[in-house]
Every structure is written in structure tokens, then in C-alpha cells.
Amino acid sequence: MIIIMQHGTSQKDIDYVVSRAQSLGLGTHLSQDQGQIFINLIGDLRAIYPSALSGLHGVERVVTLDQPFRLASKDFKSERTVVSVGEIAIGSEQVVVIAGPCAVENREQLMKTARAVKDAGAQMLRGGAFKPRTSPYSFQGLGEEGLQILAEAREETGLYIVTEVMTPEQIPLIVQYADVLQIGARNTLNYSLLHAVGETDKPVLLKRGMMSTVQELLMSAEYILSYGNHNVILCERGIRTFETYTRNTLDINAVPLLKELTHLPVLVDPSHATGKASLVNAVSRASVAAGADGLIIEVHIDPENALSDGYQSLNPRQFAELMGDIKRVAHAVGRYTTPEKQYVK
Ligand code: PEP
Ligand code: MN
Fold it and tell me: How many CB atoms lie within 10 A of CB 13?
């Protein structure tokens, strides 16, 4: 159960509602979105009637929820969340494309890739500066130097930057460079990291863990929302199954399912979902057809010599072809990819 306070409620009203909840034996967790206060009630709610609280001064409404996730739930907020990054609106009619290498390797590699994905119509640039690698002997990323190269690419191309944060300690540095903070699949259940990004004002791209259920993904989003950051973008990137031909198995069900359960935007990562460049185009088209609000795709100027995830990276020509192909699928489902070619219904 959540008590939604009216915009601009006084602290006195908030304190009074909290004390009433406490007198009913309940705990409270306060969060806010643009000044509007939400009081999450914690404890045994079975005997609590919303009417016991809905009439109190300053209360807009009391929402009862069937799901364990609250702020992420459609019952809490029926209109879709649109996350703005500059003029880019994620969760709007536009299918937003984020593209770039798995890792920033050097200046030339990143700048050439950034120019290529920009020319093909991508709106944002991805690139890891801090890389969570399965092996400690693999390339771990350039760190701050990688962030500086990303900033240079943004300066030249105007592409917004999406980059991964692996620990709470990295946040103060990364927020100086990133437009969107990526939480990787290996960290989806890292609650101290979710808490820490929840206290920033940067949009967060939250990947689904490779072993996370859809409900666990939404509970991870709930952490970020509950600490005050309402700009959360979910990302389906494939889950572990018994199949071995592909790196992961894209759970395409998750796309329309998440649309039913949450108001948050949903992206798909066909690169990590398949682990094979040859499958990325078809899986991207399927994702757009299923209702994804965007894609995050690995692109490298020279995939064969990439320091990470080369086998699943598209070269610039393949990426340009993909942009043309998904544009047609987007039109077929009433959406568009690049603003200047906006679909007219
Ligand atoms: C990545 O985006 O390069 C990455 C490591 O993805 P994931 O966390 O989904 O494995
Ligand atoms: Mn990768």
C-alpha cells in the first residue's frame, strides 16, 4: 500500500500521516518524484483499510497493490514513464537506438565507431570504460581515460553516452561523463549499487540479470525508484538456459510482459542475448515488433580484433543495414526510429 501525498504538501501533514501509519503498527519508507511524496507502508497490511488513511489532510490517494514491486507497478502509475536524455525520449513513440563498442579500447577505435553509428542514425553511444569481465586476465577497460574518450566523442558527434558503473565508489567519477548509467547483468542484484544509483539524478539503464526472473528485475528497479531516482530504463539482454548455440536466450516474452506489469521503458540488447553477430539483425527486428522502446547494440570498426565481445559485434556496414531494417518494422508497428523520418499515421 502506498499513500500518495498531494503536490506541495506540508511537512506537518506528512509527519501526521506517518505518525498515523505508525500508530496502526506500520513502518514507512518515504520516496519522492519531483517534489511529490510517496509514503510506502511496510508491515502486515491485511487488516488495514485504505479509508483509514485516505481522508487525512494532504493525502491525494491511497493505492493498494497486488505485486511486491510498488513504484514500478502499473497500478501505482498508469501512464508510461518517458525517460528524457537531452531531446531523446525513451519510452515515447520513437524506438531509440544505443550503439557502440563493448569496451572503449582507444581513441581511434571509439571515434571511428561513434561517427559510423551516428551516420547510421543511432541516438546514443555505448562503451564500457569499466568492464565486468568473466576472466580477471581479460581486458578490464581503460577506466577514466575511457570516460574522457567517450566525452570527446559526445563533443564531436552530439551522441549521448551510456556507460557501465560497477561499484558505488565509481559513481562520483562516472556521473561527470555519463548521460546514462548502465547497471550490468552481473550487478542486477547488487543492492548497494542499486541504492547508490538511486541517489543520483542520472537515468539508469538496468539490465536483467542472466538468472533473474522478471519479478526480480522489477524488484531491482524498485530499489532505484525507492531511493528517489525515477528515470529507470529496463533492458532484456537474454537469460541463461540449456541452449548452447547462443550465448544467452532472449526472453522475448519479457518485452510485452514488462509492458503489462510496469510503466517503465523497456529496451532489448540483442548482442548479449545472442552472442552472434549473424543473429543480431533478426533479433532486433523481433524486439521492435514485440514492442521494445529501443535497442542497445554492440558495434565495432573491426570486430575480429575487438578486445571484448567481437564475435557479437556488428561492423558499421551491418549496423547501417540494421538501422534500415528496424525502421521498416518500427513503421509497421506505428513507431519511428529517426525523428526527421517520423512516421505519419
Ligand atoms: C555490456 O553491455 O557490455 C555487458 C557487459 O552487458 P551485460 O551486463 O548485459 O552482460
Ligand atoms: Mn559486451
Answer: 16
Q: Is the pTM of this model over 0.85?
A: yes
pLDDT of residue 33: 86
**68/65 Cα distance (integer angstroms):** 8
Q: What percent of the chain shows pLDDT beyond 70?
A: 98
Contacts 24+ apart (CB under 8 A), 334-339: 334/93, 335/93, 335/94, 335/95, 335/288, 336/93, 336/94, 336/95, 337/94, 337/95, 337/97, 337/121, 338/121, 339/94
- Taken in order of first residue, the domains within the chain and their CATH numbers are 2-63 (3.30.70.1140), 83-332 (3.20.20.70)
Following CA atoms 271, 336, 91, 75 in sequence, which dihedral angle do they give, to the nearest 10 degrees?
-110
> From ligand 1's centre to the CA of 37, what distance in Å?
34
Amino acid identity of 193?
A: L
d(Cα 261, Cα 123) in Å, to the nearest integer? 27
Mean pLDDT of 260-275: 98
Task: Return the ligand 1 atom nearest residue 103 CA.
Answer: 3
Contact 103, 131 (CB under 8 A): yes
The C-alpha cell of 281 is what?
539483425
Most ligand 1 atoms within 8 A of CB, residue of 165, 237, 268 to mutate: 237
Residue 237 beta carbon below 6 angstroms from any ligand 1 atom:
yes
Closest C-alpha to 342, from 82, 24, 121: 121
